[in-house]
């Protein structure tokens, strides 16, 4: 058992070990831990809510997300900004395990005292984030971090969920990666504030510029969003190996943040995110409560056995039995 109020006090003082303990607590599904986690969140909220710049980075595996975050994080910590990185890794559908290897690809940032890197498995949750990512972001803000980067799993178009809990959503694409035509598709492109063509250096520099032009043309096909500053979303090139390029990336991020704060969009987005979080939390709590109910488990077991016995002929009866069992 932990004292939530004592843990909250240590966390808000910037104690990194307390932050790690708090994240572990909210990730637990044990009923007693859920009670402690609720008390912790209440204690932290009573102390006033801090706000950091939340950035989501997504892209296909190998596009260079971790390398770019490492370079950006180093630049920011050198300016005495505190940076938290929440690296979301896909979980195995067989074992539930996860490699959690993103931290090893951020060697320099992992050694920085002003940085905090937390790998988290998705536990098979879709959307590029874990079910507790929203709470983890809140904990990092209360711990005094200035910038929070959410690195998504990057496995497909479902990464749009990450855009719903961050302030700036960045899509990374590879130069000459064969994905140029993806730019004309809806979905993840509609959510992007910046499309960054990575590895724009050396022999790939010219190819990256050409790829960037393709994405710039594709973005013009999308309707302008009222939440964007003029000429955004943009497609630009970036090289994690060149400090000037990383600086330009940060300038774009700050421009979007500043415009949204000044225009009032920031406050409206945060309010919408809070409402979405309440709905998501409600769904999660209802599901957990159902799964802990012996009647639910018995109903599921009976339905599974019936389907196995009768096959597709039984499917039409499943909905009615579910409604009766759940009293809907």
Notes on the protein architecture:
- The structure is a single chain.
- By secondary structure, this protein is an alpha/beta fold.
- It has helices at 4-12, 16-27, 31-46, 65-78, 107-110, 133-142, 188-191, 205-219, 243-263, 265-292, 294-310, 315-326; strands at 53-59, 83-89, 115-121, 147-151, 168-174, 194-198, 234-237.
- The chain has a 7-stranded parallel β-sheet, sandwiched between helices.
- The radius of gyration is 22 Å and the shape is globular.
- The chain starts with a helix and ends with a helix.
Order of helices and strands: HHHEHEHEHEEHEHEHHHH
Estimated structural class:
alpha/beta
Strand order of the largest sheet: 3-2-4-1-5-6-7
How large is the share of residues in beta strands? 5-15%
Distance between the termini: 37 Å
Largest sheet: 7 strands, parallel
Question: Could you name the ranges where pLDDT drops below 50 across 5 or more consecutive residues?
Answer: 91-99, 124-129
Short description:
The chain is of the alpha/beta class.
Question: What descriptors fit this protein?
Answer:
328 residues; alpha/beta; 7-stranded parallel β-sheet
Topology of helices and strands:
Elements: H1 4-12, H2 16-27, H3 31-46, E1 53-59, H4 65-78, E2 83-89, H5 107-110, E3 115-121, H6 133-142, E4 147-151, E5 168-174, H7 188-191, E6 194-198, H8 205-219, E7 234-237, H9 243-263, H10 265-292, H11 294-310, H12 315-326
Parallel strand pairs: 1-4, 1-5, 2-3, 2-4, 5-6, 6-7
Helix pairs in contact: 1-2, 1-3, 2-6, 4-9, 11-12
